[in-house]
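Review session, final week

We close the course with one last complete record, chosen because it touches almost every idea we covered. It is Succinate dehydrogenase cytochrome b556 subunit, a protein from Microbulbifer taiwanensis with 124 residues. Go through it on your own first, then we will talk.
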Amino acid sequence: MNKNRPVNLDISTIKLPAAALVSILHRISGVVLFAVVALLLCMLDASLESEQGFADVAAAFNSVPAKLVLWAALAALIYHLVAGIRHLLMDLGIGESLEGGRRGAVTVLVVAVILILLAGVWVW
């Protein structure tokens, strides 16, 4: 084994291809969705408990932090959905080549950014 080969362990200097970035972001969005589900279920429980609980939850959504959390949850959901559709298409044999994978990854990023911005406009 060649012991003189270069080893780069600094992740900030590694240029990842688009497909790798999409894959990493897909995993991160899944973790965010898992974490935010508990918060959203608590809010749903509070809103269904009574009329006052519903009013409290509705009033909370008028605050900036709540809108940011909602937008982050929607962003994670949108990105995870778009990247998941790409994975399903690849399972069908569409975009399995090197160039097709790169184009699909760039398409996921572009479509997700557009939809996330539209969700932000809708939330605000």
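Two points worth writing down before the exam:
The mean pLDDT is 92.
Helices lie at 18-49, 51-60, 64-91, 98-123.
Good luck, everyone.
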